[in-house]
Amino acid sequence: MVKRRSPAGKRVTRRGRKKSRIGWEWLLVPLAVFMVGRAFWEDLASSWPVLLGAVAVLAALLSAVFLVVRRMGAAYRREALRRAGLDRLNARQFEKLTAELLRRDDFGRVRVVGGAGDGGVDVRGAAPDGRGYAIQCKHYTRPVGPGAVRDFVGALQARPYRGHQGVFVTSHYLSAQAARTAREHGVIVIDRDRLADWLLGAYRLGPDRGAPPVWLARLRSGRQARERLRPPSSAQADELGLGGAAAE
């Protein structure tokens, strides 16, 4: 007597066969990957001189672009400092120039306090967010040493300036030790290069300080950047107390 298989049994058998077919197909995937990878490696091995040459050309192009951009930025900075007459300013005029840049960055209550009994702070102002800023200005023709920075840090501990953000502005540069001292105490440093960026509008002081590179700011600004590079008029120079130092 022949036993008949139930339909359910047939369905089970078909499912099992279907599962086994899917499993065998997946075994072909690693083989295909291996074959494609081997072919790719053989092509790469045969053409590596071409790839090496392309990488060398690309590296040379990137280096050339970097040098051009760097020289553009340096040229813009020199022009900005020259037109501002930075090297011909005296200490008081340098403080007034710093105060004007603060006002341009929307600082309020800006006041030049430099002079006898200034407590080590030359300019004061309040950022747009309300925080007080205390600025020390050093119009030097030589690098600033760590002693000047330490004196300024000590001034920031005095009662009138406690809680203020310290900013050290100089017409020259800081020595390595002075720059390290400023970083350790959270003092913002605006040296000669950053001052040029500030004049060009490629740097802002305040809670949102920072800006695009000087060359990009120069290209974006167009006419406005050229206007900023022009020396102040005689009336503006008189207002700043610059006399004929800044105007040409």
TrEMBL record:
Query: Which residues are the signal sequence here?
Result: none
- Domain Restriction endonuclease type IV Mrr: start-end pairs: 86-199
Q: Which GO terms describe its biological process?
A: DNA restriction-modification system
Domain of life the protein comes from: Bacteria
Return the annotated region ranges for Disordered: 225-248
Q: Which residues cross the membrane?
A: 21-41, 47-69
Give the UniProt keywords, A-Z.
Answer: Membrane, Transmembrane, Transmembrane helix
Q: Name one Pfam family in it.
A: Mrr_cat
Q: What would you give as a GO molecular function for this chain, any one?
A: DNA binding
Query: Could you identify this protein by its name?
Result: Restriction endonuclease type IV Mrr domain-containing protein
